[in-house]
């Protein structure tokens, strides 16, 4: 590691990844494990969560699957408590749990659909930070990263999703200013379209091969995970309250 004046020593830290069973969450969990972190996977997908645990263990790190509905505050609190009980600490939080919801015009989006998307995409992030950050403050070091989306700028056929991601952006900026002097930095990552289960089924093979982005393709989840890993690392000494663009384009 470069000689960064304010960098903490590299330790075998513990990360909790919501939505870590697949997609961007899985990629982030594996990248963090590759950087020497032990990982707790909080997800509702038990089979895929256990598969990710095995992949992490194959990298030589300890891992734990925690069946967790992020909309349930008590369940999130239990997951964090179990991670701390198992590993003895919690240093890193990565919030990847999220759903796209319906892609329909506004008047075809019932309140129940809006509520469902908000509870997963926003309330889940809120619950996770409330549960995890006190353990970081206790140790004087912590890193939190949440996945947001360019849909926060507005998408008429994805209003619940867009509003949820706009709110997450504001939450990241607010919490980023809350605890930096205590060593806890909170940031976000805004990917473009990454080749995950949320994206690939929605488009034709022709579009995926040439999506019209300035860089000429969509990202692999692992490319997004590289940025997440940096923001969660000891190398990040001065970035907080920021949302990093990983879109293969400016803006």
Topology:
Blueprint: E1 14-18, H1 23-34, E2 38-43, H2 46-58, E3 63-67, H3 73-87, E4 92-95, H4 111-139, E5 142-147, H5 159-176, E6 184-191, H6 205-209, H7 221-231, E7 243-246
Parallel strand pairs: 1-2, 1-4, 2-3, 4-5, 5-6, 6-7
Helix pairs in contact: 1-2, 1-7, 3-4, 4-5
What does this structure look like?
The protein starts with 13 loop residues before the first strand and ends in a 5-residue tail after the last strand. The chain is an alpha/beta fold. The chain has a 7-stranded parallel beta sheet with strand order 3-2-1-4-5-6-7, sandwiched between helices. It has one domain (14-194, 222-246): Rossmann fold (3-Layer(aba) Sandwich), CATH 3.40.50. The longest helix has 29 residues, at 111-139. The chain is globular and about 50 Å long. α1 (23-34) crosses α7 (221-231) and α3 packs parallel to α4. It contains 7 helices and 7 strands. The mean pLDDT is 92. It is 41% helix and 15% strand.
Mean pLDDT: 92
Extract low-pLDDT stretches: none
Largest sheet: 7 strands, parallel
What is the radius of gyration computed over CA atoms, rounded to a whole number of angstroms? 17 Å
Structural class: alpha/beta
**What is the annotated CATH architecture?**
3-Layer(aba) Sandwich
Key features?
251 residues, alpha/beta, Rossmann fold, 15% strand
In short:
With 251 residues, this protein is α/β, with parallel strands linked by helices. It has 7 helices and 7 strands; from the N terminus they run βαβαβαβαβαβααβ.
């Amino acid at each position: 590691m470069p000689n960064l004046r304010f960098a903490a020593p590299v330790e075998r830290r513990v990360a909790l990844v919501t939505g870590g069973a697949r997609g961007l969450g899985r990629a982030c969990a594996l990248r963090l494990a590759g950087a020497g972190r032990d990982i707790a996977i909080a997800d509702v997908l038990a089979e895929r969560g256990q598969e990710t645990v095995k992949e992490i263990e194959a990298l030589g790190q300890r891992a734990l699957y925690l069946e967790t509905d992020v909309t349930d505050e008590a369940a999130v609190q239990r997951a964090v408590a179990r991670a701390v009980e198992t590993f003895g600490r919690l240093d890193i939080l990565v919030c990847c749990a999220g759903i796209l919801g319906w892609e329909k015009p506004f008047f075809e989006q019932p309140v129940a659909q809006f509520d469902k998307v908000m509870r997963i995409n926003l309330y889940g992030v809120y619950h996770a930070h409330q549960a995890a950050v006190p353990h970081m403050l206790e140790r004087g070091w912590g890193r939190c990263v949440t996945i947001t989306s360019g849909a926060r700028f507005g998408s008429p056929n994805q209003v619940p999703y867009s509003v949820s991601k706009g709110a997450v952006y504001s939450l990241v900026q607010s919490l980023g200013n809350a605890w930096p002097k205590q060593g806890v930095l909170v940031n976000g990552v805004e990917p473009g379209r990454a080749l995950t289960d949320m994206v690939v089924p929605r488009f034709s093979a022709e579009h995926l091969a040439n999506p019209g982005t300035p860089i000429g393709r969509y990202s692999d989840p692992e490319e997004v995970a590289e940025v997440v890993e940096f923001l969660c690392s000891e190398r990040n000494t001065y970035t907080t309250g920021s949302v990093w663009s990983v879109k293969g384009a400016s803006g």
